[in-house]
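Supplementary Text 2. Reproducibility record for the structural model of the 367-residue chain.

All settings were left at their defaults, and a single model was retained for analysis rather than an ensemble. We include the record here because the model underlies the residue-level annotations in Supplementary Table 4.
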Amino acid sequence: MGTLFDYLTWRGDLPFEHVPPNEVDSLIFSLISYLDFNGIVSDSHSDSPVSLQAVANTFFARHPDGRDVSLGLIIPKGIIKLFQQVKGCKRFRNVGIKAYVNRIDLQEQTQFSAMTFLPSKNRTMVAYRGTDDTIVGWKENFNMSFLPVVPAQVYAAEYLNAAADHTAGKLYVTGHSKGGNLSVYAGVKCREDVRERIVSVWSNDGPGFGKGMLEDPQYLDARHLIHTLVPKSSVIGMLLEHDENYTVVSSRQTGILQHDGLTWNVLGGSFVHLQAVSEECKRTDRTLNRWINEMSPEQREQFVEAIYRILSAGNSLTLTEYVNLKRHPSLREFDPQVRKTVSKTLAALLGENAKEWFGEWFRMQKG
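Retained model, structure tokens:
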């Protein structure tokens, strides 16, 4: 079994004109979208695309060894190495790139980023970035637990419509983590004429939705296009209401570290598929959703505000800034049920990292 890096060696000589995009390609495009292409790729759908190789050459001219690229605490630095290998790969180097958008709005509480890839003539891949290092991005994630729609989802559908208006042929939609949620929402809520052009929508360990989405007639109409991939010990992909029609993939990591797509095992032109998620994953899924469902809508909103209050302590804008703080806030004014659920949820989501990042705060709540 190999990794994405091995895939580029095994299949990197097969151009997209001969072999169309597959699930492994979808994850590669998703991970590339985590990089900052501001000033390198135009944000306009109407502008001409730039080849991936040219984009990469400019990117690495700015960041020769990649060490100064800030991806934060969550996003793996290995993506930089992946991009370095992709730029010299026959399959990817001539892929066109355009319409790089990165929108952070603290007041609106949204973090949205997307870009358009053109793998070959008459094929378009729209990729949505997952949650980055920004605190507001995590706030929007948690908002999904009590809001029917968040701004990033609306932007995702609008972006897909715009991408379709400026391209021809088949459409592919992808994203990792929150980006996977956005890819599904966009594929479901885009215009009907756009949906008719979609070949596949990939959600790579993306969280689910609030109640109602899975029964939405538009979702049911688009369901056959959606491919949800989750690692064996998925945590993020099991959050909220999710379709049980998902594919389990093998990873060389354990627990929540399997969320890192660079750890997923590849064989030939696909991931290594497994029969089912682990028992640990099932228990975490049941536990997290039970804690959330036990709260009233008001408590759920208060829960999200509590999480946000923790992460934005000291006016932190990113997780990196938060972890470097010496003092953390007390949330004793919040409902006891909310405090209890915050503690349990952070511990379940982050495992051992929760003790390292939030250990002082946990102790304060018991004091």
